[in-house]
Specification:
Chain lengths: ~280, ~375
């Protein structure tokens, strides 16, 4: 049986989104354009460097029904969202950490967002550290980091950057109940890249560790309470594959994801941060 | 990592000033593990009933006067475990009494003036002083020190994070506590109470690991506070910077059962993480882990069979019987000056935030 949806990616997008191997892991659903075929592919992959929203809107106008954006940088997506609404197209964001299935999973399954949100009422501190290789643009790291934090915490108030330099950054703010949160970026090649999120509550907390999406190593979510330490089921699926699988679900069911709405919150936050 | 302690004919005599939870749950259990070397001979507390009942547990003499304990010839080593404000004067008195070594629970002074006085007396009398910063005596830390190469020069980021249940949980694992001070319910809307809590957080809790932080901070004399936030019910989130280092301090004391006490020093291509065992219990040493190459190369040291509390006492025994060199008093002064500078700057920064918080709504995301 041939794939239902054909996929086209520029070399830059293919690289940024690990498209070849990810599409190969969903072979009944997605496949390359047949050789010699010249029409528009069903799905277009767009690299998330600056200008991606316009590129995605253009692809939609040219007839793509599905768009995957690999590692988008914060930018205004309101026109893209309107275009997607008009065309009934599906836009899925393949975010480095925030797209990991352990953070916001499918349906009613247990995930980090559920665990964190149920702890926010009695939160005393949310402490998070993102790690990436030296040479990484700290602003890009900050955006990957806040995308993950917003995915689980939903809302962060009074956010300010206290420092940002070649070794990383420190940012801080408040949770909904007024408790402090801190987000630190550390540039080092001594440790695997990833993000650690710790919520400390009155009688325990939640510990989340999300790895980079270049392998299917699972994120770890632990919920600590009077019952002990509960490890949520491990999901051996990378953020890349989970993004594509969501695309599949929406294309098949004719539904629309809320990726752009969620991303708009990151863009707004990022604009206030980098303006200062 | 067990150090050889030269056996003496007779164990060295220990006298303790202050017989509260720390003496009962930390020092007596640690000393019970070293009874061939050290023997508790005298326990003093201003509360005579506490002194006599704690002394009875170990078959020691008791008294309610410091002079009586310092005058007791059976006491070779004095441990000061009274509340903070008495530490400096008691350390000085113990040195003047000509004892062989003095252990002072942290912090060993509450201001620079006290620290200078102690240092002068220690130099004049030659009595070695050990401050109860137990992690600096933890075999896991000592193993890290043997193996960290140039990390103290190359690290750019240092983190100390302390997550602990209330002390009572671990005190009760360690002993049968006699008396416990009543817990208050501080009013944190009062900025003075908040400032006191932050000061107490730095001088009471962060201070355990500030000597470790300082080892990785060559320019420790130039520390700026980027933020100082109070964490409820007790704790802090403090971000510091020196010209060459980023220092992040976190602490949360909540109702959790799960302690997590870590120290990290991170450079571009190597990192150290130390996981310490909780306070009070004799739960073995910390584990020190070095990583390189995206975490694919890992080297670990520990756990060893004893913790830093026992390490402190081994050190004291070595100092008292002359098999070990006294640490330079300047190290203790520098550690204290560093802690005081952070505590003071933290309180100042919190006071500014408190004032600013009143008229800033903040950005909502
Ligand atoms: N190393 C550690 O892990 C650790 C942990 C907690 C506390 N501490 C330190 O240990 C010290 C004692 O802590 P604690 O929790 O037992 O304190 P505490 O205040 O509960 O008990 C101190 C005892 O000292 C007695 N005392 C009061 N004034 C005295 C005086 N002038 N001389 C002699 N005794 C006096 C009190 O009656 C009480 O029994 C403090 O300085 C604290 O910072 C160390």
């Amino acid at each position: 049986m041939s794939a239902h949806f054909t996929v086209h990616a520029t070399p830059a997008a293919r690289e940024a989104g690990a498209v070849t191997e990810t599409v190969a892991s969903l072979p009944a659903t997605f496949g390359p354009m047949p050789a010699g075929h010249s029409g528009q592919a069903d799905v277009r992959v767009v690299a998330g460097s600056s200008g991606w929203a316009a590129e995605a809107a253009g692809a939609m106008q040219a007839g793509a029904r599905g768009i995957v954006v690999a590692n988008p940088v914060p930018e205004d997506t309101s026109e893209l969202a309107a275009a997607a609404d008009a065309a009934g197209a599906v836009v899925v964001l393949d975010l480095r950490w925030a797209a990991n299935p352990a953070l916001v999973g499918e349906g009613s399954g247990a995930d980090a967002r559920g665990a964190v949100r149920s702890g926010l009422g009695s939160a005393s501190l949310l402490d998070s550290v993102a790690t990436a290789a030296p040479g990484t643009d700290p602003r890009q790291l900050l955006s990957d980091h806040f995308a993950a934090l917003l995915a689980v915490a939903g809302r962060l108030d009074g956010v300010a950057i206290l420092r940002l330099d070649t070794s990383g950054y420190t940012a801080s703010g408040r949770l909904a109940n007024g408790a402090p949160f801190t987000a630190q970026g550390v540039l080092t090649a001594a440790r695997p890249a990833g993000v650690d999120i710790r919520l400390y509550t009155a009688d325990g907390g939640v510990a989340v560790r999300v790895p980079d999406p270049d392998a299917a190593w699972p994120a770890e979510v632990r919920v600590t309470g009077p019952h002990g330490d509960l490890l949520l089921p491990t999901l051996y699926e990378s953020a890349h594959r989970f993004a594509w699988r969501r695309l599949k679900e929406h294309l098949s069911a004719g539904t629309r994801p809320d990726d752009l709405a969620g991303f708009a919150r990151l863009t707004d936050l990022y604009a206030t941060l980098t303006a200062t | 990592m067990s150090h050889h302690i030269a056996p003496t004919d007779r164990p060295l005599g220990v006298g303790i000033l202050g017989a509260g939870p720390v003496t009962q749950a930390i020092h007596l259990p640690a000393l019970a593990r070293l009874r061939d070397v050290l023997e508790v001979r005298h326990i003093m507390d201003v509360d005579a009933a506490v002194a006599s009942s704690v002394a009875a547990r170990v078959g020691a003499t008791s008294s309610s006067s410091m002079d009586e304990l310092l005058g007791d010839p059976a006491v070779d080593i004095v441990a000061i475990c009274s509340p903070h404000q008495f530490h400096a004067d008691q350390v000085i008195a113990a040195c003047r009494a000509g004892k062989k070594a003095v252990l002072c629970e942290k912090p060993f002074a509450m201001n620079a003036e006290e620290a200078t006085r102690i240092s002068a007396v220690s130099t004049e009398t030659g009595v070695p002083i050990v401050v109860g910063a137990m992690h600096t005596f933890d075999p896991g830390w000592l193993a890290a020190e043997q193996n960290w190469g140039d990390l103290p020069e190359t690290a750019h980021t240092i983190r100390s994070s302390i997550v602990l249940p209330p002390n009572a949980r671990f005190e009760d694992f360690a002993t049968e506590i006699l008396t416990r001070p009543a817990a208050g319910r501080p009013d944190y809307s009062d900025s003075e109470v908040l400032k006191a809590a932050l000061h107490g957080g730095i001088m009471g809790l962060a201070i355990h690991d500030l000597p470790l932080v300082r080892r990785f901070t060559p320019d420790f004399e130039h520390v700026d506070v980027l933020q100082a936030r109070h964490v409820r019910p007790f704790g802090y989130a403090v971000s510091l910077r020196t010209p060459s280092r980023v220092i992040e301090l976190r602490a949360v004391m909540n109702g959790t059962w799960k302690p997590e006490w870590t120290f990290e020093a991170i450079a571009d291509d190597s990192a150290l993480r130390i996981d310490f065992t909780p306070s009070y219990v004799q739960a073995g040493s910390a584990v020190a882990t070095f990583t390189r190459n995206d975490g694919s190369e890992t080297t670990s040291f520990g756990p060893f069979g004893h913790n830093g509390y026992e390490g402190e006492w081994r050190e004291l025994a070595g100092l008292a019987n002359g098999t070990r060199q006294a640490p330079p008093a300047q190290t203790l002064i520098d550690d204290l000056t560093f802690a005081l500078a952070i505590a003071e700057a933290t309180v100042e920064s919190a006071a500014l935030d408190h004032a600013a918080a009143a008229d800033t709504a903040g950005v909502s995301a």
